[in-house]
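Quick note —
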Amino acid sequence: MEAHGLGAVLLFETSNIRYATATQIGYWAFNKGERWAVVTRDTRPKVWDFGSAAKAHRIQLPHMYDTENSIGGNTGLQGAIGPEAGLHARAAKEIAAYLEDLGLKNEPLGVDMAETSVFLALQQENLNVVDGQQAMMKAREIKNQDEIMLLSQASAMVDGIYQDIFEMLKPGIRESDVVGMAHARLFEMGSEFVEAINSIAGERCAPHPHVFSDRYIRPGDQAYFDIIHAYNGYRTCYYRTFVVGRATQA
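Predicted structure written out below.
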């Protein structure tokens, strides 16, 4: 934050919140804009979360959170609750009051990403809102030994999936069959979230459509796969191409 001239960062993006606050409530809440956190240079993070989750953080992480910095919040679930409810304005007022208490209200506030209505509400509170995503990206580029091990573990799980794909890949199975197997195996191995399994074969490989189908795999097909999953928050985008049968002389 110092290098980017920020007094604090306001985070709405789920993986940024997890990285900066050590809180996670599952991927059902992924990027709904419903959770947010303020992180400063010198104080503990403050998290606004679903009410029951806020209480759970205080129980599970008592060294980090109490009733002052893990509280309930709601911004309307990306418009599902209309602006007439006043949730955006209330959230912005709470954020502004917190920053004022810390003497940071006039400092640049880096926001990673926010709904337009939330962004405008922050400006209505005369907050100096600036880009905070690049500061987060620079911070997250730096990986410690534990993070590298988690990335390695996530990739090792995909190594196993590709062995399974190699063994099952034959004419008569469908792209979707591979997707089902890969999902099941990843969860068996401890994946917390499978974002996508790209499974593309034959004429569907060019141009790559980025979505699987129920196409049957045939002899001589090129078959392309991309395994995208998360293990303890660390993700893969690990892709390989196979041939069904033998490669041609070309």
